[in-house]
User: Fold this.
Amino acid sequence: MRYKIGSTGDLKEGESRALRAGDTSMVLYRLSDGFYATQSRCTHLFASLAKGKVLKDKCVQCPLHRARFDIRSGEVEEWANFPPGVQLLNAVRGEKALATFPVTEENGELYVEVPA
Ligand code: FES
Assistant:
């Protein structure tokens, strides 16, 4: 399904915001080369990535245990590493990429594609 999710002027480069498209919660990001969307919750322990930091025009860092994900691909750049000792938890919460959703621009409007 395709959903209209806003306009290109809604975010400045390096910003992100939470949104819903149908039943799917996600975070929309504006990077230097366009707009991207990932699932809204971290795959480690489900913290909200809308409260995370966008780093170096590339990654979102989870606010809870600092896992970093490539926004464009969803791949893990660095797994949960904070505070010290969280690695024990990682034995049962192994690395897992974020789901990503294609975002397109048309006449200044943004659309996201979500699997049916
Ligand atoms: S919940 Fe995101 S790194 Fe733990």
Notes: The domain at 2-113 is CATH 2.102.10.10 (Rieske Iron-sulfur Protein). The chain has a mean pLDDT of 96. The CA atoms of residues 18 and 44 lie 18 Å apart. Helices lie at 86-90.
